[in-house]
Design brief:
Its cofactor is pyridoxal 5'-phosphate. It catalyses: [(1->4)-alpha-D-glucosyl](n) + phosphate = [(1->4)-alpha-D-glucosyl](n-1) + alpha-D-glucose 1-phosphate. One of its GO terms (cellular component) is cytoplasm. Allosteric enzyme that catalyzes the rate-limiting step in glycogen catabolism, the phosphorolytic cleavage of glycogen to produce glucose-1-phosphate, and plays a central role in maintaining cellular and organismal glucose homeostasis. Its EC number is 2.4.1.1. This protein is of the alpha/beta class. The chain has a domain of 249 residues: 3-Layer(aba) Sandwich (Rossmann fold), CATH 3.40.50.2000. 48% of the residues lie in helices and 17% in strands. The protein is built from 33 helices and 26 strands. A nine-stranded mixed sheet has the order 9-12-13-6-3-14-15-19-20. It has a six-stranded parallel sheet with strand order 23-22-21-24-25-26, with helices on both faces. A hairpin with a 6-residue loop joins β12 and β13. The radius of gyration is 28 Å and the shape is globular. The two termini are 24 Å apart. It binds ligand 26Q. Ligand 26Q binds next to α6.
C-alpha cells in the first residue's frame, strides 16, 4: 500500500516504513518478517526511487511546458558511485529514512554500505561528469546527461602477492534499482555498408545503405537536485540485437547462426575501455562511440522536432557539450542528419552545427585521440565523406586567412596524412565548437601556448577556462557527516550546501578554542573509521595503525606523471633516516601512516610495477619491529568512489605530486581540501588556483614550476650523461640503489622501473631526481606543522574555508552563463 498524499508519496517515517515493507514483500519478494541488510537496502532503494520518479516526471512535464533551451551533456563516462545516501540527502529525507529503518531493526549506515558502486568510468573525467550532473540538477538547469550503460564497469583490482590482477566488474548482477528501463525508447543504430548517389527532386543526393543494424535501448537514471524538486535525467544506452536480423535468418534459413550473430550486437555496450590512451584505433571502441552518438542524437532531434518545426531554431534550443573528444563523431552525425535526412543545404547545416557544439578537453598532451581512416571507411563510410568535406571547407577558409603555408595547413588539418591516415578528433572538435574549454587556468594557458597554439592563433575567442569543481553534497555532506554538522553549527546555517562560498564564514572562528576542539574531534572519528577499514582489509599482515600518526594519503590512478614513485622513494628515505636515528631523535619523529591507492591500466606495465614496489616496501617496513608505529605503509586495493568517501575524510595530509605541466586540473585535491586535509603538492593544474585561495602558507608546495620543467629536462639531457651519476643527489641515489640491488626483493622485476629515472635509459622524464630534495623539504615542513596541532588545525580550517571556489556549482554556473547560454528552469513545488 503506497502512502499517498495529494497524489504525492509521503515522507514521514511511518509512511516510508510502510513503503519499505511493501517493497520487501512485492519487489524483493521476501517475507516482511524476515529480511537481511541487503534486502533492506533493495527495499529502501525502491522506496526512494519511487519518490525520484515523481519528481523526475514533474520536472520533465515542466520542461516540456516551458520549452527552455536544453543542455545535452555527452560523455562516454560517468563515475556515479553509490546512489542511496546521495539521493536521500538531496531529497531531504535522510532522518526520516534512518528512523524508518531503525524501527525495523536496521541501521541506515549499514544498509547503505550494501550498495555497490556504479563505476562506468575511469577516473577524473568520469567523476567530474557525475559531480557536474549533481550541480546541474541542484541549480535547476534543464539538462540531460547521455552515456553508455556498460555491463562491465571499470575492472575491479585485486592484489595477489603485491601484484595487481583485474577482475570484471559485472555490476548489474544484483539488479540496479536506480535505473528505469525504457523498452519503448529505442533507436536503430547502423553500421558498415556503402554510400550511393541518387537523384532526388532533380538534385543529386548521397544515401548511406548500411550493412548492420543494432538497437539502442534507453535506461534512465534520475539525478535529484538538492533543495529543489528538480530531478534531471542521465540516459544511458544499452545495445540490443535488432529485429532486422530475424528477417535475414528467415531468408537464409540459418537460424542458429543468426541467433549467434544477434548476440554480437550486445557486445557493443558490454565493457568500458580502461583509460589506456594507446587503445586508440580499436574497432569496438569506435563502434561504442558511434552507437552512443547516434542513439543520443536521434533522441535529441526527436525531442526538438516534437516542439519545433524549423531547424534555424536549433541553436536557440539545443546546446551539445562534448566531454573530451570521445563523443566528437557527433559533429559528423548532426551534419549527416541535417543534410541527408532533413535535406538542409550543406552551408546552412554547417552554420547551425557551429552554433550548437561546445567542447572541453581534459588532457595536457598534444597527441590526442585519432581514428584511422581505414576503420571509418568500413564502419561509417558516409561519415568519412562528411569529415573530408568539413576538412576541405576548413582548409579552403584557412588558405584565405594564412595563405599556402603547407606545413601549418598540415598541422591544423582534421585529417592527418602519413603512414596511417587518420582523423584528429581534437582538431575536429575545435573547428566545429563555438567554445573550447580548459579545466584549470594553467591548463588553458597550456592549450593556448602549446597543445593548440595554432588554433588559438586562429580562434582566440573560442578558448575559455572553466576550472573544475566537485560537489560538496557528495564530498562533504554524504561522505563526512561529522564535518557537515560541525560546519552547519558554526555557520548557523545549512545554506553552504547550495552555496559553497559561504564556507569562507568559517574564518570567523579561526581562533575559537571550542571550534578547534570539535574540528579535531571530527577528524579523529574519521581517522578511526579509516583505521578500522585498513585493519579489516589487511588482515593478512595484521596491521594496526596508530591514530596519533599522521595519515598521509595518495589516492588516484597510477601513472608515471602522477609520480607515486616519488612518494615511495620518499618513504624509503624516511625509513633509512629512522634506521639511522638514536632513541632520543626517534622520540621527536612524527609517526606516519602512508596510504597509497589506485588502479593501473591493465596494459600499463610500469604502473603495475609501481604497485608491486609499494607492496614490497610495505612488507619490509611494516615487519621491521625496530620501526614500530613510526612508519607504516598501506596499499588500499580497489580504490573507487565509495572507498574515496571513506579515505578522504580520514586523511591528514594528501599528496598531489604530478610534474608541473602534466595534470590538466586534478579534482582529488579539491575533495581533500573540502575535508580539511592539508595538501602537499606541486604547482600543477588546479593546485595553482587553490594556492590563490588559501595562500602558499597553508599547504606544502614543492618542485619545479611549469616554466622550469622544460629547462630542467634539457639540462638533464645535456649535462648528465650516464657516466656522471655523481650529479644525482645522494639520498636519491641511495634509495634508487636499494630498489635496484634488490633490498626489497624482485630485483629483476624492478629493473625497468628503476630505469625510467636513470640516465641513458628513461632519462627521468618526470624529473624525480631534481624534485626529490624539494619534496623532502616539503615533507619535513609537514612534519613540523603537525607537531604544532594548533597551527595544523588553523591550516585545516582555512583549507575548508577556501574551498568554496572549487564547488562544481561554480563551474556549472559559469558554463551555463558563458558557454551553453541556458537559464535555470525551476519546477514549482
Ligand atoms: C581514450 C581512448 C580509448 C579508450 C579510452 C580513452 C580515454 C578514457 C578516459 C582517455 C582518457 C580518459 C580520461 C581522462 C581523464 O580522466 N582526465 C582527467 O580529467 C580530469 C577532469 O577534468 C582532470 O582533473 C585530470 O587532470 C585529467 O587527467
Amino acid at each position: 500500500m503506497y502512502s499517498l498524499m495529494d497524489g504525492f508519496l509521503k515522507n514521514d517515517p511511518i509512511s516510508l516504513q510502510k513503503d519499505i515493507l511493501h517493497h520487501v514483500e512485492y519487489t524483493v519478494a521476501r517475507s516482511r518478517f524476515s529480511f537481511d541488510d541487503f534486502e533492506a537496502y533493495q527495499a529502501l532503494a525502491h522506496t526512494v526511487r519511487d519518490r525520484l520518479i515523481e519528481r523526475w516526471h514533474d520536472t520533465h512535464i515542466y520542461f516540456k511546458r516551458t520549452k527552455p533551451k536544453r543542455l545535452y551533456f555527452l560523455s562516454l563516462e560517468f563515475l556515479m558511485g553509490r546512489s542511496l545516501s546521495n539521493s536521500v540527502i538531496n531529497l531531504g529525507i535522510e532522518d526520516q529514512c534512518a528512523e524508518a529503518l531503525n524501527q525495523l531493526g536496521f541501521e541506515f549506515e549499514v544498509v547503505a554500505e550494501q550498495e555497490g558502486d556504479a563505476a562506468l568510468g575511469n577516473g577524473g573525467l568520469a567523476r567530474l561528469s557525475a559531480c557536474q550532473m549533481d550541480s546541474l540538477a541542484t541549480l535547476d538547469y534543464p539538462a540531460w546527461g547521455y552515456g553508455l550503460r556498460y555491463e562491465y564497469g571499470l575492472f575491479r583490482q585485486i592484489i595477489v602477492d603485491g601484484f595487481q590482477h583485474e577482475k570484471p566488474d559485472y555490476w548489474l548482477n544484483f539488479g540496479n534499482p536506480w535505473e528505469i528501463e525504457r523498452i519503448h525508447v529505442t533507436y536503430e543504430v547502423k553500421f558498415y555498408g556503402t554510400v550511393e548517389e541518387v537523384e532526388m527532386n532533380g538534385e543529386k543526393q548521397k544515401v548511406w545503405i548500411p550493412g548492420e543494424t543494432v538497437e539502442a535501448v534507453a535506461y534512465d537514471n534520475p539525478i535529484p537536485g538538492y533543495g529543489t524538486r528538480n530531478t534531471i535525467n542521465l540516459r544511458l544506452w544499452a545495445a540490443k540485437p535488432s529485429s532486422k536480423f530475424d528477417l535475414e535468418a528467415y531468408n537464409t534459413g540459418d537460424y542458429i547462426n543468426s541467433v549467434v550473430n544477434r548476440q554480437k550486437a550486445e557486445t557493443i555496450s558490454n565493457v568500458l575501455y580502461p583509460d589506456d590512451r594507446s587503445h586508440q584505433g580499436k574497432e569496438l571502441r569506435l563502434k561504442q562511440q558511434y552507437f552512443f552518438v547516434s542513439a543520443s542524437l536521434q533522441d535529441i532531434m526527436r525531442r526538438f522536432k516534437e516542439e519545433h518545426t524549423n531547424f534555424d531554431e536549433l541553436p536557440e534550443k539545443v546546446a551539445l557539450h562534448l566531454n573530451d573528444t570521445h563523443p566528437s563523431l557527433s559533429i559528423a552525425e548532426v551534419m549527416r542528419m541535417l543534410v541527408d535526412e532533413e535535406h538542409l543545404g550543406w552551408h546552412k547545416a554547417w552554420d547551425i552545427v557551429c552554433k550548437i557544439f561546445s567542447f572541453t578537453t581534459h588532457t595536457m598532451v598534444t597527441d590526442g585521440e585519432k581514428i584511422p581512416v581505414d576503420l571509418l571507411e568500413s564502419l561509417l563510410p558516409r561519415h568519412l565523406e562528411i569529415l573530408y568535406e568539413i576538412n576541405f571547407n576548413f582548409l579552403e577558409e584557412l588558405k584565405k586567412r594564412i595563405g599556402l603555408d603547407y606545413s601549418r595547413l598540415a598541422l591544423l588539418s582534421i585529417v592527418e596524412e602519413g603512414a596511417m591516415k587518420s582523423i584528429r578528433m581534437a582538431n575536429l572538435a575545435i573547428v566545429c565548437s563555438h567554445t573550447v574549454n580548459g579545466v584549470s587556468k594553467l591548463h588553458l594557458e597550456r592549450l593556448k601556448t602549446k597543445t593548440f597554439k595554432d588554433f588559438y592563433g586562429l580562434y582566440p575567442e573560442k578558448f575559455q577556462c572553466k576550472t573544475n569543481g566537485v560537489t560538496q553534497r557528495r564530498w562533504i555532506v554524504v561522505s563526512n557527516p561529522g564535518l557537515r554538522d560541525l560546519i552547519s553549527k558554526w555557520l548557523g546555517t545549512e545554506a553552504w550546501i547550495r552555496d559553497a562560498d559561504l564556507l569562507s564564514g568559517l574564518r570567523d572562528h579561526l581562533d575559537n578554542a571550542d571550534f578547534h576542539l570539535e574540528w579535531k574531534m571530527v577528524k579523529k572519528v574519521n581517522k578511526m573509521r579509516l583505521a578500522e577499514y585498513i585493519e579489516a582489509f589487511l588482515t593478512l599482515s595484521l596491521l594496526q595503525v596508530s591514530l596519533d600518526a599522521m595519515f598521509d594519503v595518495q589516492v588516484k590512478r597510477i601513472h608515471e606523471y602522477k609520480r607515486q614513485l616519488l612518494n615511495i622513494f620518499g618513504i624509503i628515505h624516511r625509513y633509512n633516516c629512522l634506521k639511522n636515528m638514536d632513541k632520543d631523535s626517534r622520540r621527536k619523529v612524527v609517526p606516519r601512516v602512508c596510504i597509497i591507492g589506485g588502479k593501473a591500466a591493465p596494459g600499463y606495465e610500469i604502473a603495475k610495477k609501481i604497485i608491486k614496489l609499494c607492496h614490497a616496501v610495505a612488507e619490509k617496513i611494516n615487519n621491521d619491529t625496530d620501526i614500530g608505529d613510526l612508519l607504516k605503509v598501506v596499499f588500499i586495493p580497489d580504490y573507487n568512489v565509495s572507498v574515496a568517501e571513506l579515505v578522504i575524510p580520514g586523511a591528514d595530509l594528501s599528496q598531489h605530486l604530478s610534474t608541473a605541466g602534466n595534470e590538466a586540473s586534478g579534482t582529488g585535491n579539491m575533495k581533500f581540501l573540502m575535508n580539511g586535509c592539508l595538501l602537499l603538492a606541486t604547482a600543477d593544474g588546479s593546485t595553482v588556483e587553490i594556492i590563490e585561495e588559501i595562500g602558499e602558507d597553508n599547504l606544502f608546495l614543492f618542485g619545479a614550476k611549469v616554466h622550469e620543467v622544460e629547462k630542467r629536462r634539457q639540462k638533464r639531457l645535456s649535462n648528465l650523461a650516464p657516466l656522471q651519476p655523481a650529479k644525482v643527489p645522494l639520498h636519491f641515489a641511495r634509495v634508487l640503489r636499494m630498489v635496484r640491488d634488490g633490498y626489497f626483493g624482485h630485483k629483476d622485476y624492478f629493473k625497468s622501473l628503476c630505469e625510467t629515472v636513470e640516465f641513458g635509459f628513461g632519462n627521468d622524464y618526470y624529473l624525480l631526481t631534481s624534485d626529490f630534495g624539494s619534496y623532502l623539504e616539503a615533507q619535513a615542513a609537514a612534519d613540523k606543522a603537525f607537531v604544532n596541532q594548533d597551527k595544523w588545525t588553523r591550516m585545516s580550517i582555512l583549507s575548508v574555508a577556501g574551498s568554496g571556489r572549487f564547488s562544481s556549482d561554480r563551474t556549472i554556473q559559469d558554463y551555463a552563463e558563458s558557454t551553453w547560454k541556458i537559464n535555470p528552469c525551476r519546477c514549482p513545488l
